[in-house]
Amino acid sequence: MLWTTLLALTALVEAAPQLKRQGTTTMLRFGCAQVVIDRLDPLVNPGLVPSPHVHQIVGGNGFNASMTTGDVSNGASCTTCAFSDDFSNYWTANLYFKARNGSYKRVQQLGAARQFNDDFSTKIGGGILVYYVSAQPGKITAFKPGFRMLVGNPNSRTADPAMKRQNCFRCYTGPNFGGDVSAPCQDAKIDTQSLPSQPCKGGIRSNIHFPTCWDGKNLDSPDHKSHVAYPTSGPATFLTLGGNCPSTHPVRIPQLMYEVVWDTTPFNDKNEWPTDGSQPFYFSYGDNTGYGQHADYVFGWKGDALQKGMDASGCMGAKCKDMKTQTIDNAKKCSVKTTVNENHDGWIAKLPGVEMPMNM
């Protein structure tokens, strides 16, 4: 199926008439403001302070270095997300610009495409867009309390064909998100597995897709990946219509996707780029290829709130029937105190963790 645009949710539904007829299409698409920037990773490095690299975290204020088991919604009192029952935590590595003199500066995040025109798209500065999609045939089972997973490998530095629909970057060709057409990670002409090699006039967008099949038993696994899987046809496409789950992972779970818009526009002066013309952006774990892009997820919706959304038909965007929402101003009041004392906004000599020891 061809998607003409993601810039209008109503147009997206019209582009999938068979889904509309089935009455089973739901796409919760909402922003979460930043809850903290910190060098913690309770999924991969539980209890370790600091973790090896810096992350940007959104969601519930229960986030901490040791949130390794149990229902995290019980330890949170507020959330930065549009749905006020969503105390989950979503995080990715930070992106940095490396100047020709060798110093680094963190790249700020923007909201999503302004054409969506809702506060949790355009006013989450520093946050992440989150998608939960229920568009596959059959029942979609929401995640259970204690569920968590990881996608991507921070140690990857070469292209992996199996990842092209899982992780991708889009170079906005003009201001105001110019060139944002077609579904993410589907168009090889505009989506790449590597970080863009040229200045992007409107910034860079990251999209990260999680697996859509679960073994139905384990809430986690030693590698944080083995308890989930992609359909037998391979990594799920956005709003996939098919693809059977493997017999080892028979339970269909929501299609979870993160979208991060990096404001690289202050760094588009090629005179500041490396003299050899190579691209100057590095993730916080020292990767300037982009192939190591990864993301972490810890489920924390209250009660059956997410299941209600997945069972509802026709929900699109940051509102869905009787699901509770909050204002962006209230969401931005939610925060977590930083544990590791580091410079997140100024110029720094080395990447924290990778090259620079921590300050406590």
Automatic annotation (TrEMBL):
Coiled-coil ranges from the UniProt annotation: none
Location of the DUF1996 domain: 41-301
Signal peptide boundaries: 1-15
Name of protein: DUF1996 domain-containing protein
Keyword rRNA-binding carried by entry: no
Pfam family, one: DUF1996
Entry keyword set: Signal
